Amino acid sequence: MGTESAALTEGVFYILLSLVEPMHGYGIMQNVEALSHGRVRLAAGTLYGALNTMLERGWICSLPGEMDSRRKEYGITPLGRKLLDAEMARLSELLVNGKTVLGETRS
């Protein structure tokens, strides 16, 4: 299965979604928790492991920061945005199919 067709984990999805606007690690952790209404909480080790993997895959990039700042900011790349869009389409299809099978027609 190619990278572009693989389902993203919920944590990775929320990290990519958070990085539509440049953000540092702690901000990502807070944003993921807020977006998921507290359901997804990323520990620092989990977050930075995921960020390193996404950096290696070219889904995100490290942004140049201010010289006196210790915070590293990250942003989503065009490839990361493509994956995020594909995941949203996949999730939409799942929702539509589930509603069809269950007899629900509302959106």
Q: How would you explain this protein's 3D organization?
A:
The chain has 107 residues and is mainly α. The protein contains four helices and three strands, in the order αβααββα. The chain has a single domain, classed as Arc Repressor Mutant, subunit A, CATH 1.10.10.10. The chain has a three-stranded antiparallel beta sheet with strand order 1-3-2. The chain is elongated. The two termini are 30 Å apart. The relative contact order is 0.16.
Give the topology, please.
Blueprint: H1 10-18, E1 23-24, H2 25-35, H3 44-57, E2 60-63, E3 73-76, H4 78-102
Antiparallel strand pairs: 1-3, 2-3
Helix pairs in contact: 1-2
Task: Explain briefly what this protein structure is.
It is built from 4 helices and 3 strands.
Keywords:
107 residues, mainly alpha, Arc Repressor Mutant, subunit A, three-stranded antiparallel β-sheet, 4 helices, 9% strand, elongated
Poorly predicted residue ranges:
none
Distance between the termini: 30 Å
For the secondary structure, the number of strands is 3
Provide the residue-averaged pLDDT: 89
Largest sheet, strands/sense/barrel:
3 strands, antiparallel
Helical percent range? 55-70%
Q: Please give the order of strands in the largest beta sheet.
A: 1-3-2
